[in-house]
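Database export, one record per block. Field names are fixed; values are copied verbatim from the stored entry.
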Amino acid sequence: MDLARVCYSCFQEKPDDSPVCPYCGFSSEEEQPFLALPMGTVLHGRYLMGRVLGVGGFGITYLGYDMVLEIRVAVKEYMPSGLAVRHADRYRVVLAGRRKEDYENGLDRFLEEARILARLQGTPNIVSVQDYFTENSTAYFVMEYVDGMSLKTYLASQGGKIPCAQALTILKPVMEALTRVHGLGLTHRDISPDNISITSGGESKLLDFGAARFSSQDDKSVSVILKHGFAPEEQYSSHGSLGPWTDVYAMGATLYRCVTGQLPPDAIERVRRDTLKKPSGLGVSLPSNVEAAMIKAMAVKAEDRFPSMADFLCALTATGGGTAFPKIARGKTGFRHGNPGTEKGGTLIRRPQKAFVLKLAALAATAALTGVGVWRLLPDASLPAGTGTSELPASTPEPGSSMSTPESSVPEPENSGSSEPENGMSEPGGSTQPALADYANEYLNLSMKVPSDFQETSPESAVFVSPDGSCSLQVGFYTCWSGFPVYSLADVEANAEQYVGYFIGLLQSTEITGYEILDEGYRQAGGADGYQVEFQAAESGGSVMRFLAVFIEGQNGFGCYNLIASYPQEDTAVQQKLLSAVDSFRCLGPAGTGYQLFTDEKLPFKFMYAQQEPAFDFQIEDDILTATSITGSDYFVLTVSALPLAGGETAAGVLGQSTAGLDTIFPGIRQLGGQQTLESGGMEWAVQDYVHQSEGVDVYLSYAVSIWEDRAYLIIFTSSQEAQLADNGLKSDIMGSLRPVT
């Protein structure tokens, strides 16, 4: 590349020295913002700076070109206009006054944003950071370049608002990404249409983590980050209690802005007089469950909102209390090899003219994130782009680490759904044997055969897609799902309908008109006991996709393997290949997992928890478990006990008895909000939070009680950080997976 002739917008080499690019029309003589680097600057010996994409009070973002990878990137530079100026050499940054401490504090926050994005590397629907470094007496970080427009700009181009279904299609992937963000103990704090981008390929991306904050930070106050209409009332105070509920409010407000075209009233004004109008009151037509979920998400008081983004998402998709899609009766008859497209005990889902393409990529869950595998059914046939939350290996996995697989580029053929495999092997007599290739995964400790023409999306991901992207096979190890934990196949059997309903509720299509559970039941799979669920979903265009979910016992003592296959309804050849692959599965030992099981013969309960550093120090005394984790001045302690019941007691009543007299033990203790009723893991919990001072330092407590058969289970969480008591991680892991030992 001749750098003297390169275009600073499309980065193609121009045929001559003309300032105007003949390919994109950009002129190199176009005036740049005052403090920007000269176009053509090379940073870190690798990144060629082009035109300016945006300027903020603390930074400048450039369009850049990675000369090693030969791709366009976005490069963000720390340039606080009120504190610094550009040196006469046009490159170095120098202080404009004596506020060196302010400059350095801002630089630290800038690099923290880079580290946050690096930690989220590979998370779908979040802009990823590729590099960060210091140069020119300032700092830079390099991000993927998102070619598209902000949701704010898109709304303006559509007359100010969009239909509810379209808004949910845009926002649901971002909400799913935020469950991962919250699972890491991180709050974004600046969600709005400005910070959500829609790429040229139609994908939603969450941007700008400059305001994000980890709940584990030691400082008691945080900088006030406000975007009026989208910021909840707790963000108006430097000592406000921030957490997933903060982002829930902002996401609810963003959805409200999308469907109504109106900016919600400021939360601080709503504290005094709530003037928020329901969308239906503004003449907007949308499903009642969506409106109810949106209004709850935007509740003024944090305790009245959804405690997690996953709960908000479930409410929007009407899972738990019912499904948003028509459902057909099922029969527990075991796995059936019957012909596709036949009528079975309910509405006929007819053989389609053509299958809609399943877009798939796997996202492994972090230790604090639970859920079910998710695909998105989309009307186009572009590259795989879905999510799943089975625990999948990275190339070099570490316990508790986040693991993901990038999208794979698979070309679409002219004809899909062929009746015969392209590389089948003929046997004597003329039959065709599906062609399979050996596969082993050290992290998951398994071996099996997979269709030889399928490609693994990335090394060791255990996610495979067909050449045309229409079929897939994903293998993972499941411990906790959204709504219920998995200790054995009995948990799968008891919750199979919930699993399928939640799965279907998160599928994204132009319109899914119905789904049917075809068969479910126990069977031998992979040489071990298994449970299999076969179901299918239909789209308004007539296309039908089949799903085969097989759950196989492992050797961990909890959880189970999950193999999920998908294929167009009429593609019986691929179906047979996938069935053969499932039957070839073999468990070679305990699977790698981000979770651990706590159980002890002295105690009548068990639970699962995410591996963490430092690990818990468990102690048992007088039938009470105490677990402690300490990092410097930050600590987290939980005590769990099982209280015998005489009968007739309620969780709220036991909670009241357990917390009576706390003011005499901890003088000055006060409640944080009112008593809450939460459902986690199929158990209903009565919860009350408190704060008191010990040696001048705030100590936070959360009491939770649930009743199971003849015992009340009492959990007391104690922490130096309030946010730890309300995040989507450790606390919800334990509450959601606690079960009696039988």
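Remark 1: DSSP finds twelve helices and 40 strands in the chain.
Remark 2: The two ends are 69 Å apart (CA to CA).
End of record.
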